[in-house]
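This protein record is not my work; I was only asked to verify it. Take the sequence as given and treat only the tokens as open to question. I have pasted the whole thing underneath without changing anything:
***
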Amino acid sequence: MGIHFDKALGVHPEALKLRAERTKILASNIANENTPGYQARDINFSASLRSAQAGAMDALSLDTDDADALYRVPNHPSQDGNTVELGVEQAAFSQNASDFQTSLTFLNMKLKGLAKAIAGQ
């Protein structure tokens, strides 16, 4: 009887991939804070995760140019057309980093549990 890691690990590998891609998008937003006309982007994490679980995406290869990335609507639009709001982006980046660490902790616990089961403990 073999172990099906995709079933044993649950949603956490997909969540980590999505969190990593969201980190890239948010970092790009922060890096382009002063770029005139730059449109801040983000992904709808829960919708992307649902589609990944449903098998709609063969591989989670989100890009900043991907259709899953949405434009962020600014609270205070700037004159130069840039929609990046540094405080909002930093808060989203920080929350995403915390969520990434949480998913990583859950995945680590699952792997330790599998290792114990294999060892017969």
Notes: The first strand starts at residue 41 and ends at 43. The radius of gyration is 18 Å. The helical segments are 5-8, 12-31, 45-53, 86-119.
